[in-house]
Amino acid sequence: MDWWVSMPKVELHAHLNGSIRNSTLLELARDLGEKGTIVFSDFEHVIRKSDRSLREVFKLFDLIHIVTTDHKTITRITKEVVEDFAAENVVYLELRTTPKRNDSIGMSKRSYMEAVVEGLRSASSSLDINFASDDPERSSARTKKKIYVRLLLSIDRRESTAAAMETVNLALEMRDMGVIGIDLSGNPTIGEWETFFPALKFAREQGLSITLHCGEVPNPVEIQAMLDFLPGRIGHACCFQDEEWKKLRLSKIPVEICLTSNIRTETISSMDVHHFAELYKAKHPIVLCTDDSGVFSTNLSNEYALASNTFGLGRAELFELAKRAVDFIYAGKRIKMELIELFESAARTLE
Ligand code: 6MZ
Known about the structure:
alpha/beta; nine-stranded parallel β-sheet; 49% helix; binds N6-methyladenosine-5'-monophosphate; 351 residues
């Protein structure tokens, strides 16, 4: 396991609130329980349950949002999540989150995102973090772990076109704060592609990168429409049929693969039938990711170890896979070059 931790890694599919530490989640829930806002024992039971269907996961997210969504907590969670990824040698992280509006506590989508950015700033006390500049200047802080962090704003599938557009406009306003793209996520059984399409199209026209949760449930019409849109990457690609595989393979759209998440949510019935193997064999662009490291009790090193054990891949092969992920990041050329250098230097020192 230590080797997988030491290896530099790139994380491109991590939801902020899904990556919350279990200890933090329980602490926040206990506090709210004491205030009488929630019944802690009910909450604890749901948090501690380890196997949840996809439907139950979305119920859990609604609970998580009750305890996490105030500015101070969002700042704390962001700081902790970035620290956790850096601690396991994730050197580049694209962290995604859904900007939330909650009038009762004076929260707008913008103030939610400012709380996230504040969390990145406060992580700099323990990390050498770059989140807003494209200039990969070397810092003198050699003792601190170095991590590049960029933000993707998620559109939740429950949202209207207008709300999705608000998120895109916010992303455009926050480009100098490390926001580089848009994600479409949320319960895949809810919402229509047509609702999000105008906002996604506009986002792309304005130069934002796009990633879509695609094929978490069987929905051939939507999958085809999403692939036709040619997003920069897609997440999951679990419920594809022959036609969709063909289209995906031709398109060469990189796929963010979340092994533990897919098994836990029963989106894929078992690891031996996971599409990782086929995509890997076909040399289709893929990247291993965590999805929700807190909710699924995993981390990126664990996902690499799992891929190694399940698919019989060695260290060298998985090191190459991690390095190739640099090609699919949404940050610019200079950061890519810096990361490649970092991987090459790690290859010389890691045995
Ligand atoms: C689809 C997911 C997801 O945005 O509050 N999310 N959407 N499929 C998944 N696979 C299991 N895991 C997480 O993080 C939590 C939100 O991310 C999306 C859901 O909308 C969830 O509410 P943020 O930081």
